[in-house]
Design the sequence.
């Protein structure tokens, strides 16, 4: 056995309208090199102007991570040549990061874990270099977009833990509204540091893994790296300090550069940006914009509403779900029912893309359902129509004539019809295949357009086939 | 009106054409201008603005962006680049109707003291074409001294406005850091440099300063500090720098003459010393080169400017472009700047230099607690001979009087203090931060008592239209 230490370096693209040091739009998916100006293209003579909103969102993230926050934002230049970086230096924070010494909790395998945050710092993103048959092509649309780097302490010990953390972290930044959290599109990126050492010997030689484009890759790449280092350790070979690139197609990592080839970034204070004082007004504004975080919401839902864990977890994943749930609870009092409906009907309620159902209408529908004015099946159909029209449930029930319940003789007639249409199934049931009753039940419900009370229908069905319910 | 003859030159397409031709002729012997275009700026210029500067032409150092004009910084690496935007200082002038008509020659990226490090041409001193005009804003200074334009925008990183102004016998203002926006000034050493102003006319200099100074949202290091005022009734106190080793007898004489002029005005004149002056050159070049190594990293041939045609890979493209297109002095400074910033070497060089910088600031504060201004030479020698006059190292050491103001961020004004041996011997006044206007006021007072020597004009605006 060996001790495993994993630290993550997470980059999040902040949700600012414009870039961090110029006024170019920061939206994505545009034609290459259309969201650019002399500043983000690094023309001679241009100067950066700090985007206050980027600093606000960075500050909020720092608060969420319980960091000790700086009193003034100071920037440094990080020097290295790369074609997608227009100035060949990156404006970043090195000597005085925006936040330090933080922590964050997350749930993994039924346990609540606390991860320490080393620091968070605000910087500018680079452009993109695309390798094509004709050669390398450069797109600077992303160059200069606001990027926040979050560096954790080496507090993880498995790939799975890191994966689960990343998912929780993603949920958190989406909750805060500071990042879309889309790893595939690169709005949330992750590098990992891994060191494996003999038990009790502390940190070993650090290896950095890059190119982890999903939380699943993070787990796979880390598991691969732990195996690789463990093998080296077991066989008494040397672990080299290096940066490795994960190759998802081949399921392995390759050395990118060793310590000797590492960049000397020659950091020095950015002379073009004076210290930005994070005064009382700035801090107050960031604090006012803070929201309850997913884990707090989860805990509160268990405590306040006694929701099942999976329902609470589901709701606490998205702010839109929480908002919808809590607004529904102003009109309706069975939290568990409301929660499970939101969880089961994501297309209709709680999602950012869901229809025009208001919490009040939704609560009304749940009440009608509780009063058995409509059956559950009918209610689902009503909900779908509510999403399309934005109408109240009563109006839709009226219009579609979906009143719950079917007259006794009508129900019996439907059952006779179903039995007469499926003699083979009836025979199977008589031969002992009790499960086939479900098939006939489905047919009965379908014929009644979901209006039949399932319990009543089943009792009549069994009776009609001459089977007592006890059988 | 004072500037009428100049305004007449820019009044119409026709007069601007005549001016264009006159500029070409007048510049032929001094080669101060890299690009002459009296029409290019006209579209953006608000000639009808209600300003005494409306219609007044000016030249702009080629490291300051003017949309539509070239933007070479005196370097082959930016050959062919047209500025896609306009610098804040130039824009403010366009907004009140002043017209940029030419881009001026300079040492490559401002690195030099003679305008001999230009990739394109050598500029000559209009007083004596066998001599250099100084640098790096040598083209700006020569164009003003020769009367091609009434004023020019330059840049001063360690004396690059004041030294050529002194060599050419005109005024050169390095303002307080932050009082003129740097937006649009191609960066060499960001924490040291400012846009600077050159003119033979102190009143015009002050008007231009009023127009271009003030906070600009495009430069967060710019500010709108209130100009320093001095109670009228107090007698000005001038401190003359003592212990000026290594200056020529002519410069020493010029300095004595200026101090004498001050006494004749009834000012109190005393001595002051800057003990850290002996470290200033090393500290200055450490910081300047460090910043330059980062500021010049953007020139790779990928997005604009010169691109090597000999490269077969992306890495090679950057390497070959930079190797082929940067001059020797630029390469030297990038290499040294890279060296002093290396991890493990910063304490020894960069951080130590910053400590010296802090100490120099402190010494200035000390002097300004007891004096309104400091008088000292701009440069230890007068305009030297072209091609052989001074080695690059000698030039750097000779920057010691000018670069202290850049280290401290304080204003300094070079002013003509009379001729010695037939050549200008410029002196400078330094004041506390925000005293830019006061320094110009003092210089105006001194003008009354110092000898007035006519400039070696090569263009008379009255003759262009009527001659």
Sequence:
């Amino acid at each position: 056995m060996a001790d495993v230490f994993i630290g993550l370096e997470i980059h999040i693209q902040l949700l600012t309208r414009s870039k961090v040091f110029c006024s170019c739009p920061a939206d994505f998916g545009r034609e290459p090199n259309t969201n650019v100006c002399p500043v983000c293209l690094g023309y001679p003579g241009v100067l950066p102007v700090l985007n206050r909103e980027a600093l606000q969102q960075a500050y909020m993230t720092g608060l969420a991570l319980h960091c000790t926050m700086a009193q003034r934002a100071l920037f440094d230049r990080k020097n290295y040549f790369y074609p997608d970086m227009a100035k060949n230096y990156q404006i970043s924070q090195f000597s005085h990061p925006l936040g330090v010494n933080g922590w964050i909790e997350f749930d993994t395998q039924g346990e609540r874990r606390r991860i320490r945050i080393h620091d968070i710092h605000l910087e500018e993103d680079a452009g993109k270099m695309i390798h094509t048959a004709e050669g390398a092509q450069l797109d600077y649309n992303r160059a200069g977009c606001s990027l926040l780097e979050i560096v954790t302490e080496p507090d993880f010990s498995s790939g799975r833990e890191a994966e689960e953390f990343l998912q929780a972290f993603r949920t958190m930044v989406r909750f805060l509204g500071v990042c879309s959290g889309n790893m595939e599109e690169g709005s949330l990126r992750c590098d990992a540091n891994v060191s494996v050492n003999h038990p009790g010997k502390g940190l070993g030689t650090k290896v950095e893994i890059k190119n982890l484009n999903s939380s699943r890759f993070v787990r796979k790449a880390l598991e691969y790296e732990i195996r690789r280092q463990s093998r080296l350790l077991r066989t008494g070979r040397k672990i080299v300090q290096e940066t490795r690139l994960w190759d998802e197609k081949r399921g392995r990592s390759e050395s990118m550069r060793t310590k000797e080839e590492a960049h000397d970034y020659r950091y020095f204070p950015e002379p073009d940006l004076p210290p930005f004082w994070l005064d009382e007004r700035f801090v107050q504004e960031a604090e006012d914009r803070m929201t309850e975080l997913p884990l707090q919401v989860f805990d509160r839902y268990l405590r306040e509403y006694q929701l099942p864990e999976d329902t609470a977890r589901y709701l606490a994943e998205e702010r839109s779900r929480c908002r919808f749930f809590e607004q529904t609870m102003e009109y309706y009092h069975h939290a568990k029912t409301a929660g499970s409906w939101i969880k089961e009907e994501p297309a209709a309620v709680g999602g950012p893309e869901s229809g025009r159902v208001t919490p009040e209408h939704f609560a009304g529908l749940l009440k009608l359902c509780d009063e058995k004015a409509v059956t559950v099946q009918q209610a689902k159909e009503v909900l779908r129509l509510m999403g399309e029209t934005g109408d109240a449930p009563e109006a839709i029930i009226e219009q579609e004539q979906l009143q719950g319940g079917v007259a006794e003789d009508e129900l019996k007639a439907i059952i006779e019809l179903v039995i007469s249409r499926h003699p083979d199934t009836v025979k199977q049931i008589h031969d002992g295949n009790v499960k086939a009753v479900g098939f006939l039940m489905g047919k009965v419900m379908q014929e009644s357009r979901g209006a039949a009370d399932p319990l009543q229908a089943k009792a009549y069905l069994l009776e009609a086939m001459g089977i007592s319910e006890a059988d | 009106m004072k500037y009428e003859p100049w305004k007449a030159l820019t009044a119409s397409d026709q007069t601007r054409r005549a001016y264009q031709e006159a500029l070409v002729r007048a510049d032929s012997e001094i080669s101060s201008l890299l690009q002459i275009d009296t029409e290019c700026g006209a579209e953006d210029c608000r000639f009808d603005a209600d300003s005494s500067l409306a219609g007044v032409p000016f030249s702009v150092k080629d490291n300051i962006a003017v949309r539509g004009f070239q933007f070479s910084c005196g370097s082959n690496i930016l050959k062919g680049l047209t500025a896609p935007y306009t610098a804040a200082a130039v824009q403010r002038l366009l907004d009140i109707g002043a017209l940029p008509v030419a881009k001026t020659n300079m040492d490559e990226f401002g690195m030099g003291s003679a305008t001999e490090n230009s990739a394109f041409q050598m500029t000559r001193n209009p007083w004596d074409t066998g001599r250099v005009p100084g640098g790096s804003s040598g083209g700006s200074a020569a164009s003003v001294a020769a009367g091609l334009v009434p004023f020019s925008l330059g840049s001063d990183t360690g004396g690059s406005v004041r030294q050529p102004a002194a060599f050419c016998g005109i005024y050169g203002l390095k303002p307080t850091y932050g009082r003129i926006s740097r937006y649009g000034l191609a960066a060499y050493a960001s924490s040291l440099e400012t846009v600077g102003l050159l003119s033979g006319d102190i009143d015009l200099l002050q008007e231009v300063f009023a127009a271009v100074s003030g906070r600009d949202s495009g430069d967060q290091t710019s500010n709108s500090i209130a100009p320093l005022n001095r109670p009228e009734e107090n007698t000005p106190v001038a401190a003359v720098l003592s212990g000026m080793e290594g200056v020529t007898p002519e410069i020493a004489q010029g300095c004595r003459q200026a101090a004498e002029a001050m006494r004749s005005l009834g000012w109190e004149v005393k001595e002051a010393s800057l003990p850290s002056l002996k470290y200033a050159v090393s500290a200055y070049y450490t910081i300047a080169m460090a910043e330059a190594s980062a500021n010049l990293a953007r020139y790779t041939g990928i997005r604009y400017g010169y691109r090597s045609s000999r490269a077969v890979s992306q890495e090679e493209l950057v390497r070959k472009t930079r190797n082929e297109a940067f001059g020797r002095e630029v390469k030297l400074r990038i290499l040294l700047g890279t060296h002093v910033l290396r991890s493990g070497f910063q304490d020894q060089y960069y951080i130590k230099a910053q400590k010296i910088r802090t100490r120099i600031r402190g010494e200035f504060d000390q002097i300004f607690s007891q004096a309104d201004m400091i008088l000292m030479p701009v440069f230890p020698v007068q305009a030297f001979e072209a091609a052989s006059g001074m080695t690059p190292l000698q030039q750097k050491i000779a920057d010691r009087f000018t670069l202290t103001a850049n280290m401290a961020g304080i204003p300094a004004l070079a002013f003509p203090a009379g001729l010695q041996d037939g050549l200008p011997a410029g002196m400078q006044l330094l004041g506390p931060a925000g005293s830019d206007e006061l320094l110009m006021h003092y210089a105006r007072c001194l003008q009354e008592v110092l000898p007035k020597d006519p400039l070696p004009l090569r263009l008379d605006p009255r003759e262009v239209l009527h001659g």
